[in-house]
Protein 1
Amino acid sequence: MKQIKQKLNSQCGASLMITLIFFLVCVMIASVTLTAASASVGRTVQQRKEQQAYLSVSSAAQLLQSSFQSAGMSVTAERVALTHQCNRNLSQHTEKPASDWQDTTQVTEGDDMAWLRGYLRSDALSLSKTPDAATPTHTFTIKPDNADMLAVQVKMTMEKDYKLIFDLAAVDPNQAGKTLTAYTMEVAFTGTATEESASANDTTATCQYITTETVIDDTGSFTEVEKTVTTPLLRTTTTRTISWQAGVITKGAIS
Ligand SMILES: [Zn+2]
């Protein structure tokens, strides 16, 4: 009985209980702190990725802008049309079809923007040939200058009025083939098309037709004489120059 009383009054159990509760509180605080810390680390990683994406995308946009400014982006296409000057109606001569647009852009050696110019040339030519065709697009990647930057995926579209639109998004370093959508940019360049025409008699193509002429011979009688008339065709060369000036950077989402 005395032993039981001692047990009931004993402070040992209570102090163990207090120690246990104190320990439990400590574990709880530690776990809350750890969760907050790891969330904060996660946020920092995400923020760093977004910052990288922003810097990479904006430097790629500036690169595109400056490339167009320094390299003077323009392409030329030429079309030749042959027209008759014989004043005969269509059924009396063989109509030569007008030639289609041909790329006549001057190519300079060692042009490091030749790849981009190649896209401009083929797109501008196809739009000149068939203005109602679907707008041509290309997708390419701008590689980063240093390890801190991300690769940037660029989608290039040439619209019917030769307006160029580049949609930029950073490539996700952790997911191949995916882009980071937090920071995307658009660079747009207005295309200006000018045309010049020059006409001259063609030296190689002629129109020939046979006509009859009434002549008075020595005896004073009228006779019909067949005569071949040759007229040169008129060659008209039209040169179309499409150029792109300073681009405008706008922030926008890629759809
Ligand atoms: Zn003719």
Protein 2
Amino acid sequence: MTNIVQSLRKHVQSEFAQSAVGYLRIGLRSFFESNSWPYLSAQAALGNLGIAVELMLKSFLAARDIQLIYKNLPFEAQAFLSAFKDLPPSFPWRTFEIAIRSGRYETIGFDESRARFYVFVPELKQSLESHLRFLSQHRNAAVHSVFPSFQRFELEKVAFAALTIVQCLMKSEQFRYTYVLTDEDRKFLDQFRADRIDRVKRAVEKSKKHAATIEHTSSCISVDEWGLYVTECPICGCDGILYGDTEHGFNEDNEPFESLDFFAYEFHCDECGLALEDNEELRLAGMETCFDRTGELNKWRAQFAEF
Ligand SMILES: [Zn+2]
């Protein structure tokens, strides 16, 4: 009988995957065309890639458990999905199966989808989060309004994120043949990585020139958020801010038993203007991307009572 739930999960996952790939193809076509026709295709590219990314993330989550993609699923529907074989014969499971098949329940939004995706693929968070955060901030304008302005690089970051996610999905059985990277996709990915090296070099050179005009030798910043971390700017030596996440964990083998680490994915220095957009750019500029915050464990425990 659990075949009914498995078949439903396959159906939902497949529907999301097919829709996602449809939007991805249109988004990438608009993106590549936007080289020649920037004003005609850029907004369409961003809008379609934004929808594609959200649907890909939901398809990925649904393949693991379709409950992961819903917001406030009724308890009866949860019981049907997680304990079908224990339900009495009188349980009206068809009602809930039809409701799910027909998309009657509200699904989670873009931000929640990516937060849940990272739980399964934490290694992609540092390389994607800065790009997906940009997409989160601009996708609604791209779909529902007039997109005021854009920089080519910002659109490239979104295309890079979309292609990275589809490659991640293609590693699993459910998605293996859903999408095949084209020669144009591969060429773009290679070019994006090569351009990133040049971009960091240019950013570092520009910041060095600016740093030479700074009269003071240091400035101190104090922040009190788990999503921010102050570190020394590699160019001017002043305090700059890293954006990222602090994660609490337990270490089975080493002391201390508990750990608190900050994983960075963006850096900004207000003094010399250095701005680095993802963990790969941080590495290229010679910066660390992971910082030990174990010394702040007491503060963490005080804030999050369950620890
Ligand atoms: Zn600096």
Protein 3
Amino acid sequence: MAIYDTLGATYGRTRQPDPRIAAQVHAALGDAATVINVGAGTGSYEPRQTVLAVEPSQIMIDQRPRGSAPAVCAVAEHLPLRDDAADAVMALLTVHHWTDLAAGIAELRRVARRRIVILTWDQEIFRERFWLVREYLPQAAAFDDSRAVPIDRLAALLGGAEQEPVHVPHDCTDGFGAAYWRRPHAYLDPQVRAGISMFAQTGEDALAPGLAALTDDLATGHWHRRQSDLLALDTIDVGYRLLVADV
Ligand SMILES: C[S@@+](CC[C@H](N)C(=O)[O-])C[C@H]1O[C@@H](n2cnc3c(N)ncnc32)[C@H](O)[C@@H]1O
């Protein structure tokens, strides 16, 4: 069973594509006339020139908006597609879930005629800069240490790639891990946590002490005093990276 058949039931509620990140992804795709989205989930960030979505979870496919590109139930490691099937292939916030990263990237390179765009994060930067995992939920950081894909490894598998930081806006509409960096109360909402695999897979028991400490710090004003520098920022770089490779 695909892992997002368990994790993904409420994905569409908390994970709406953010327009500023969409603009950056679409710019990275350049003038590609055809795009395939691998690990497509519910279809976030798909440009209008998307010809196919590849996604292993039927629960995620079922949440794709009406009128989206067709979707096939398959994994990155075995793409049911011919060589050079589209100008560009994108894979957003998905490579950390793949069971065989090298096989998946080889498949992207086989299927992309010109460009590959991958959104992921640098775990060393993330665990150091994101206050939630640094100060409250180290168990979640430890879980991500075990699955995050080192950027250098990814770039090497791609045969070289440009890297762009993806800054997270303070009002980001896509509720991924650090999306609520300036809205700390959101992390106390179980539905928000359910839409973030780092928390869903770490498990509520392990998170409970850190969430209790965050609850206290928000109630006493300690969090706001301690993080006052953050409150003046509109965007933050906590390690999300776009890798752009020409094949
Ligand atoms: C965090 S979601 C991201 C979805 C979408 N790309 C987005 O940005 O909203 C990760 C997705 O990767 C998919 N996935 C997991 N393992 C995969 C694999 N081996 N090949 C392709 N996709 C996979 C999951 O089913 C899930 O839909």
